[in-house]
Design goal:
Shape of chain B: globular
Mean pLDDT of chain B: 90
Radius of gyration of chain B: 18 Å
Helix content of chain B: 25-40%
Largest interface: A-B, 17 and 23 residues
Strand content of chain A: under 5%
Strand content of chain B: 15-25%
Largest sheet of chain A: none
CATH superfamily of chain A: MetI-like
Distance between the termini of chain A: 52 Å
Shape of chain A: globular
Oligomer: heterodimer
Mean pLDDT of chain A: 91
Structural class of chain B: alpha/beta
Number of strands of chain A: 0
CATH architecture of one domain in chain B: 3-Layer(aba) Sandwich
Number of domains of chain A: 1
Chain lengths: 236, 261
């Protein structure tokens, strides 16, 4: 009965509980790539979104439309573009980054940055609408406004970062193109699930699926807890 | 005979000109929006150390006038002068405004105060001294660490007053600061306003309450339909209004007569 769903699931849970070395390596690489990409995306996307959300400038609507549109970037297209940039004949080929975790981080950063920037713009714009007159009355300087808005919107922006994390950790199309799914080098949870399923090794695929789902649940639980806490503190 | 009722160029503090030198002036001030002229050719002189009350029916442009004077919105025409020069950033930092609905940052009460002082460049011991003084004045010491947004409406407005006064402004604009407050909170705001005035702060305040105007005002601007319908000392205007707009408003009658020709 080991082919039945419950049997496979049991074996998958066994792998997780046993702390299977290969499994742990894949999980840790996934988290390293994803967390680094989300960190970089926040480094770029938070100030970018805050600037667009705070200031009026010519072309602002166009920038907003582009940011919103880029939220739906197809991962395989991003993967292909990064591949072309990093391949031996590409402009960044000399860096020899193709099929490395760094290439995967670059691809995921490109995917997540527009999500962080676009959601940040919305959050900051709403808050700025509320603060604008008070800021003007106090004589708050432009960059101080951005800093104050980012700080006061920190709970909402944490949710934004978690949304970016959710997108990155579940992504497969881009990382498989630029990472190559090389065992012990660039193999992450999503690419392993795709590979092992095609090979018929359902135990490992399912074990990783369980881990991915658990991470998704934990991320959502974090979001709920943070929002509840912020409402209790009247910061929402 | 000159019709004082529609004299848009009247000098507000003229009846009590002993009050002081002009601190602010608005000359031929206009503001247009949506194809309508909302502030129409208004001239105002605010004298140093005086308390000017702005009154008028809803929608006559009182809040708009305050925002124009404070430089929150640019006028469509005319100019605002601060000590005889155009309003600039430095002039704005010598002013403070408290809104009808206080805007509280998502921080503690004390952090709201600290932010305003930091914006003015105050740091260290001087900032701490001003924070303590302002919180004490507004009787908010016990609530200093509470998130500002969970404070009651009255407490938030006291904090808004404390924040404004901690910046030691030369002029304080108050846009109906007691409109939604209970009598005790109203009294607290009035006490803070009087205290500020005693400290030499010039006050410009919007109110719909004639009794409050009598308690707090020296001079009065009565607006109707975006123009000055009547100006003068608070008591003369309230006791013996010369314009039909002010008379109707004080009697609780709806006055639809336009002041614009």
């Amino acid at each position: 009965m080991s082919d039945s769903f419950l049997g496979v699931l049991g074996e998958a849970v066994g792998l997780i509980l046993a702390g299977d070395r290969d499994l742990m390596e894949i999980i840790l690489l996934s988290l390293r790539v994803t967390l680094t990409a989300v960190f970089l995306a926040c480094l770029i996307g938070l100030p970018l979104g805050a600037l667009v959300g705070t200031f009026r400038f010519p072309g602002r609507i166009v920038v907003t439309v582009i940011l919103n549109a880029l939220m739906g970037l197809p991962p395989v297209v991003v993967g292909l573009l990064v591949y072309l940039m990093l391949s031996a004949s590409g402009p960044l080929g000399m860096l020899r980054l193709l099929y490395t975790p760094t290439a995967m981080i670059i691809a995921q950063t490109i995917l997540v940055t527009p999500i962080v920037a676009a959601l940040t713009r919305q959050v900051i714009e709403d808050l700025h609408r509320e603060y604008a007159e008070q800021f003007a009355s106090l004589g708050v300087r432009p960059l101080d406004r951005v800093g104050a808005l980012l700080w006061d919107a920190r709970y909402s922006l944490l949710t934004v970062a978690l949304a970016g994390f959710g997108r990155a950790v579940a992504e497969v199309g881009a990382v498989i193109i630029v990472g190559g799914n090389i065992n012990h080098v660039t193999r992450v949870m999503t690419t392993t699930i795709a590979l092992e399923t095609s090979k018929g090794n359902l135990q490992l695929a399912l074990a990783l699926g369980v881990v991915l789902l658990t991470i998704a649940v934990l991320v959502n639980a974090c979001v709920m807890a943070i929002r509840a806490s912020s409402v209790r503190s009247a910061y929402a | 005979m000159r019709d004082v009722a529609y004299d848009t160029h009247a000098e507000i503090a003229a009846p009590s000109a002993a009050g002081g030198e002009p601190l602010m002036e608005a000359r031929r001030l206009c503001f247009d929006a949506g194809g309508k002229r909302l502030i129409d050719n208004v001239d105002v002189v605010i004298r140093k150390g005086r308390r000017t009350v702005v009154m008028g029916a809803n929608g006559t442009g009182k809040s708009l006038l305050l925002r124009l004077l404070h430089g929150l919105i640019p006028p469509s025409g005319g100019e605002v002068l601060w000590r005889g020069a155009p309003l600039d950033g430095a002039a704005r930092r010598a002013q403070a405004m408290v809104f009808q609905r206080p805007v509280m940052l998502r921080r503690s009460a004390l952090a709201n105060l600290r932010f305003a002082l930091a914006v003015r460049g105050l740091q260290g011991a001087e900032r701490a001294r001003r924070e303590a003084e302002a919180m004490s004045r507004a009787r908010l010491e016990d609530l200093a660490r509470r998130p500002a947004r969970v404070l009651s409406g009255g407490e938030q407005q006291r904090l808004a007053m404390a924040r404004a006064l901690a910046c030691k402004p030369d002029i304080l604009f108050l846009d109906e600061p007691t409109a939604s407050l209970d009598p005790a909170s109203t009294h607290a705001i009035e006490a803070l306003t009087n205290e500020a005035h005693r400290d030499g702060v010039t006050v410009v305040m919007i109110t719909h309450d004639p009794r409050q105007a009598r308690r707090l005002g020296d001079d009065l601007i009565f607006l109707h339909d975006g123009r000055i319908a009547e100006t003068g000392g608070v008591l003369p205007v309230l006791d013996n209004p010369k314009s039909e707009a002010a008379r109707a408003w004080l009697e609780g009658r709806l006055y639809l007569g336009g002041s614009k020709s």
